[in-house]
Design goal:
By secondary structure, this protein is mainly beta. It has 1 helix and 11 strands, in the order αβββββββββββ.
Length: 196
């Protein structure tokens, strides 16, 4: 049964890829979405969180898209769980350097981080008043690429640097972090045969 499923998936990709395609796949009106698992690394204390990373990206012009990203904290790689909650929402403009089905991009996105610290922060008790949920501004610089498989799927590779801080009573906790994700996504066209 599993072998038949893999055969079906392989046949689907071969048939999709063999259809006549325009010279450049990325055009105005292309909508991309993906959901992956993202690995993070905080610069200050080397804590490694895992996120569910979702993004939605709409191609405004051939080289410019509007991109939204959401990261939801699900776990940590080790026992140093500094956050109970650490979710991020980002939106901004991406610039694409696409050629045929290969679509590298760079993006700058402002956003917010919704964070709540654990009661003990790396072995130390939190001062009173620092246990609450905080909304913190973020700025993110990201880059990566999409590779289109057929008409409806793509491989998505994304890396990003987030910069911000969580406000505390005595000092601010830096939220500076590197994130990396790889996964599959879906794409749809909302404008047909309209090269830009």
């Amino acid at each position: 049964m599993v072998r038949k499923a893999w055969l079906f998936i392989f046949t689907f990709f071969v048939c999709s890829a063999s259809q006549a395609q325009p010279k450049d796949f990325v055009r105005k009106g292309l909508l991309r979405a993906s959901a992956t698992v993202s690995q993070g690394l905080f610069f200050r204390n080397k804590v490694q969180p895992l996120y569910v990373h979702m993004n939605l990206d709409y191609q405004l012009e051939r080289r410019v898209s509007f991109r939204c990203d959401i990261n939801m904290l699900v776990a940590f790689q080790d026992d140093r769980k500094i956050f109970q909650h650490h979710h991020q929402a980002l939106a901004g403009i991406a610039y694409h350097f696409s050629s045929k089905r290969f679509d590298p991009y760079m993006a700058v996105q402002p956003g917010v981080s919704l964070t709540k610290l654990n009661k003990t922060l790396l072995g130390e008790e939190l001062p009173p008043g620092d246990e609450g949920l905080e909304v913190n501004p973020l700025i993110s610089a990201s880059g990566g690429f999409n590779y289109y498989i057929g008409n409806f799927m793509h491989v998505a590779v994304n890396s990003r640097f987030n910069f911000g801080s969580h406000k505390m009573t005595n000092e601010n906790l830096p939220l500076n972090e590197f994130q990396f994700s790889v996964g599959l996504g879906w794409n749809l066209r909302f404008r047909q045969n309209n090269p830009v």
